[in-house]
């Protein structure tokens, strides 16, 4: 049973890396959009949406599904405060995930409506959430 749980946990972490890495990469990519003009700007936005729809959404789905499997394997973890805090941060991250996707879709129709500062802020928020989630998961402070 330990091997199965460790394997699922490893895949869960891999999904998190896919999800967070994709979000961070796309925010860095989109921070450059305001500097571009014409076709390159459209290509940046198209590439960002494509990466989001494949990599980021897949990573999020894998992370969430396997996280639920891990909870089902050990329901007693639901009584631990660190998991409540972690799940709250994941919910906030999901909010940013959906909002960010909507922002990309909006920018495809209005490419001049972006600023590099906006995507740097999103990058910082995602980074802070990732660090907080990792600290909670590893240290289990509560």
Can you describe what's shown?
This protein has one domain. The protein is 82% helix and 0% strand. Helix 1 runs antiparallel to helix 2. It is elongated and about 55 Å long. The two termini are 26 Å apart.
Return the domain count: 1
What is the arithmetic mean of pLDDT? 92
Structural class: mainly alpha
Distance between termini? Answer: 26 Å
The helix count comes to 4
Biggest sheet statistics: none
Proportion of residues in extended strands: under 5%
Question: Strand tally, please?
Answer: 0
Low-confidence stretches: none
Helix share, percent: over 70%
The shape, in one word, is: elongated
* Element order: H for helix, E for strand: HHHH
> Radius of gyration from the CA trace?
17 Å
Describe what is shown at a glance.
By secondary structure, the protein is mainly alpha-helical. It has one domain (2-139). It has helices spanning 2-30, 39-73, 81-109, 116-139.
What are the key terms here?
142 residues; mainly alpha; 0% strand
What layout of secondary structure does this protein have?
Layout: H1 2-30, H2 39-73, H3 81-109, H4 116-139
Helix pairs in contact: 1-2, 1-4, 2-3, 3-4
């Amino acid at each position: 049973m330990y091997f199965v749980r460790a394997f699922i946990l490893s895949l869960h972490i891999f999904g998190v890396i896919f999800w967070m890495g994709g979000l961070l990469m796309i925010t860095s990519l989109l921070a450059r959009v305001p500097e571009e003009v014409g076709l390159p700007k459209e290509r940046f936005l198209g590439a960002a949406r494509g990466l989001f729809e494949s990599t980021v959404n897949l990573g999020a789905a894998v992370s969430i599904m396997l996280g639920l499997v891990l909870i089902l394997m050990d329901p007693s973890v639901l009584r631990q405060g660190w998991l409540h805090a972690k799940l709250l941060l994941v919910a906030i991250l999901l909010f940013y995930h959906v909002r960010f996707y909507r922002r990309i879709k909006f920018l495809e129709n209005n490419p001049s409506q972006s600023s590099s500062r906006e995507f740097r802020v999103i990058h910082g928020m995602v980074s802070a959430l990732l660090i907080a989630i990792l600290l909670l998961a590893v240290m289990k402070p509560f």
